[in-house]
Amino acid sequence: MMWILLLLLVLILFGFGFTMQILWWVAAVLLVMWIVGFTMGGRGGDRRFSRSRR
After folding, report:
1. Where are the alpha helices (DSSP H) in 1-54?
2. For 6-34, how does the pLDDT look when each residue is reduced to its tens digit (9 = 90+)?
3. CB count in 10 Å sphere of residue 35
4. Which of 13, 11, 10 is nearest to 21 (CA)?
5. Which of 2, 15, 45, 47 has its CB 3.0 to 4.6 Å from that of 41, i.e. a possible disulfide?
């Protein structure tokens, strides 16, 4: 019985670590996309909105 609990604990910790690793990668990708969107939107965004007002 103790071995099953130990195995279950190891699987839970492994899954949590794997999930956290994926979340770090997702956060890094979203940060890069936000930075790229911010820099590109700052350059071309004003022109796009000014055309729609005319």
Report:
1. 2-53
2. 888 888 888 888 888 888 899 999 999 98
3. 10
4. 13
5. 45
